[in-house]
From TrEMBL:
This is protein adenylyltransferase. Transmembrane segments: none annotated. It catalyses: L-threonyl-[protein] + ATP = 3-O-(5'-adenylyl)-L-threonyl-[protein] + diphosphate; L-tyrosyl-[protein] + ATP = O-(5'-adenylyl)-L-tyrosyl-[protein] + diphosphate. Coiled coil: none annotated. It is an enzyme of class 2 (transferase). Its EC number is 2.7.7.108. It comes from the Bacteria. Keywords: ATP-binding, Nucleotide-binding, Nucleotidyltransferase, Transferase. InterPro entries: Fido, Fido-like_dom_sf, VbhA-like. It comes from Clostridium boliviensis.
Amino acid sequence: MSEEYQIYGETINKTVKKSYWDAAIGLQRVDGLTPTKYLSELAEANIEGELSYHQIEDLLYKRYENESSEDIENRNKEADLVAARIAHILDSPGYPSKITSLKAIHKELFKDIYDHAGQFRKVNIYKPEPVLNGETVKYTNYTALEDTLEYDMDTEKSKSYAGLTENKVIKRIATFTSSIWQAHPFMEGNTRTTAVFMECYLNNMGFSVDNTMFKDYSQYFRNALVRANFADYRNGITETNQYLENFYKNLLSGAGFQLRNRDLILKERFTPGRDKGIEL
């Protein structure tokens, strides 16, 4: 007699569940968002087994049926709902390393928030970066997104991690993350989507992820991705994965590197005394 399939449920391990919420809440900071105290209370109830993720989402929908001007200004609905959805995804079976997974994660995170949830952008975009003194990373042209990401996914899947040293594993993971993020396939939410996609990928491969890194260093993670994808060869500036690798060494092996945003500031882009308020 064959065994029947079982329904995958939420983890009952409070420590693990708290780590999912830590990452989920911390990742909102990459877009300058701070989840509300109410969301923190719901998260605590979920950790204690008093509320499910589905119940939390229902409560948040009721909470934001009539958004206040403060809610709208602070983007509280987005911060709370996306955080809850990230925790739920992390506490679920992972996604395969495919373009469709990237789109599915973005759609799940931003449904009812952005009308383009799960859809690749149809225009070219740029974003001034403080660590580059207002310069921008050159994102992939929107006409090449599908082909570029398909190449990145296929390249990653074609190589094995078996027998690699820890250092080579970290370099591979950092390079893959950087390539996904550099495409910037969505109009909004690219860093949060990339982080969730990569954590699902790492969990699928059996890596143990320290989610306090995303809780405490999510902005560093984003700035490290900026530095991994910015070059100005005319002025001797090249891309560097070193900061991203340091993040992953801490995330996956507890290496203990000191991660400071000020170390990621590209000083060559600043004129002394005219640093736009950023401490060099």
